[in-house]
Sequence to fold (426 residues):
Amino acid sequence: MKVNFKLRKGKKTNTILIDFRLGRDNRVRCSTGMEIKIGSEKYWDSKKCKIKIPNDISNYHIINEQLRSYESEIEEAVIKLKADGRISNKTCQKVVKQVLKIDDPKEQIDKNKSNIVLDYFDWFLGYYKINNSSYTKKPLTRGTLKTYNNSRNYLERFLKEKKINTFKFEDIDQEFYNDFINFGYQNNYTRNYIGTTIQKLKTIIAHAYEENVHNNKEFKKRYFTKLEEDINHPYLNDQELIALTNVELITPLENKVRDIFLIGANTGLRVGDLVSFLKSPKLIEMDGKEFINLKQIKTGSEVLIPINSKIQNILNKRDGIFPAAVHQNIINKLIKSIAKKAEIKEDFIVEKTVSGKKTKQIKPKHEFISTHTARRSFCTNAYNAGMPPYDIMVMSGHKSEKVFYNYIKASLKSKATKVAQHPFFD
Fold:
């Protein structure tokens, strides 16, 4: 038994095919529904039947994982057919089609037009994990899929508590909306977490509406909005970053984590992009200066970030080599103790709405530090240093000034000082 994948080159796109063989008589060859853009076919490994690393394909890891999953599921199903004595070319074809779900997209959508919200949610996640989303024009990223799954699971827990066995799109109204929020408050979720859950659910409802699954327009009304609030998450200023740079650390892993965090604090890269870059660092030179060059996983946009003296110092002490990638969970765990050693431990207050009530959480500042603090520090320090917001956004990947200004943690005095520099106040 062999489960191979091959690339069929086309004029507009390259399609990944499956070529299943079992002896002489049983062969199934069809499209997996997954595609690689024109120009990227050079990254296809025909021997290993997967996409090579590095490459310029933003969702390559999803495609590779899906191919391995297809291979495993098909082999398992065919072994069962053998055990049951039901092997034939017809049954093999049926197994492959069931695993790949290769029906026409419109037919597949029709099959899921049950009008049951959780069923449609499951279809949406499975389909757009490997197919281009109508909103982003590319498959959903791993991080986005995780957020959607959180929203789906929140809804499932809500329905279970309310003892609702069948929940249809027509059942969505203002009473449901309010109960959905109150459920989050009762379970100690933050306002922003509930808001993100509502946002993703609203996307599912809108998608189903556009596909004529339902005619319920409640999601378009003004009340059906995403809850959100600006939380004063900390950033590290220049002096604190210097303290982090100079602190003496014992283990190689601590040194690696510290250097990765500092690279993030001097580039503004999302942690996923930073870890991906460190797996296969790529620099380009322009006008005698080196730049980090990559495509952002979330947006697909290409960025060029200049290497500053602080990053160069990290490279110099490492013989010109970037630190190897470390999983973000390890970074999040160690960076707190490293910051504590750097004496970044004055009390810090984070205010946010939990269970529908404003709360204040007071802890030493190092306990609030995470991988995201590095990105926030870059944006805020660059803004405080006078870099125009648009130039920062080009590197950070923020798409709107509203999001950017909510994101940076510049003080009121700093913002007022910048406003005062405008010619209007001369």
The radius of gyration is 25 Å.
